[in-house]
Structure formats: structure tokens, C-alpha cells
Predict the structure.
Amino acid sequence: MNIQINSLAKRFNREWIFESISCEITSGEKVGIIGSNGSGKSTFIKLLSAAELPSKGDIKYFSFETEIDAAEVYRAINFTAPYIDLIEEFTCKELIDFHLQFKSFQNGLTANAFIDLVYLTEAKSKLIKNFSSGMKQRLKLGMAICSESQLLLLDEPCSNLDTKGIELYHKLMDGYNQNRTTIIGSNEQTDELYKIEKTLRITDYK
């Protein structure tokens, strides 16, 4: 997926979070959006996900030079962040089965193989509401990275992860994110900006 960002700006009340962001992200490129907490990087990623609308400017998405309609772009995006909630009334297996009604896993990965991959074998029948924050983050990352999509958006992917969880994140990125446009939001943590090719510092657009 190619993304064209044209004079993008976002305002909350009377404060401009950022202004005049214009750039192009080419298909398969891996870009880091960096900035401290409160700098606007999460807001920028939400705009890229089409979950929010900009105050000025626009974002255009292209698949093999054909523009994707704004109302349909969500179908081509996988997005996860610490502030995105899971359905806590589901068990782990129920949630994955529900997810697979909308998105398929890559490489013929089955639901049970996926559960093993993200180290949740013993929690297969456990309710999501009883998961630790690290277990939830592994599950969210796994579903986002392993599922088919043209664009992957990750905001602070190493939040709530221990050393083993970070190693899993890198393993998933190596195995399931080879040729996809990828945008990662981070406070400049090396573990999060894994194999990033270029960065955009959000504070440059204040």
C-alpha cells in the first residue's frame, strides 16, 4: 500500500497538535513515528488508521496505483495499540475464532498454531478479562502482525512486554511482516523500532 499524506493537521479545542505534515510512504516501506508521550504520535497513527478525521489536509491510500475508497480502507489495515481493548467476555479461543471471521492468518496459520505461537497454550480457554497486561499485548500483537493486510500500524508495540515478549515481537515481525507497509509509533525505543527504514519526528510539525 502507498500512502500520500497532504498538509495533514489536527487540532483539539484551540491547540494544534501538529500541522502541515506532507509526505509519501511507499509500498513495503517501514516507517517509525517518534515522539515523547503527549507529542501527538498516537493521534497521527489514529488518523492513518482512518479511525479519526484530520482538522486539515487529507490522506490517500493506493493499492497497485488504484486509490482505495476512504470508507473501505479499514479492510486493508491491521492496527493495534495499548489503548485498543479486546472483548474481555470472550475466551482466548473464542476471540481468535471471532477475529478469523473478518481477517485470515498468513501462511496457513491455524487458530491453535497461533495460540501456541504467542505463548498462550495454557490460557486457550481462559477469559480475556483474566489475562495479564502482557498476555493481552502478545495476543493483540499476534493478531495484528499475523493477519493478512496491506498496512500494519503498531503504536508502542513493546508496552507491557517482558524480555520474552519483546523477543516474540521480533520473531513475529521477522516471520509475518516481510513485504507489508508498516508504521510504528514509539518513544524512540530501539526494541519497538525493529528494522525501521526511516523515521518521522512528530514534534517537527508543531
About this structure: The helical segments are 41-48, 92-99, 111-117, 133-146, 163-176. The chain has a mean pLDDT of 95.
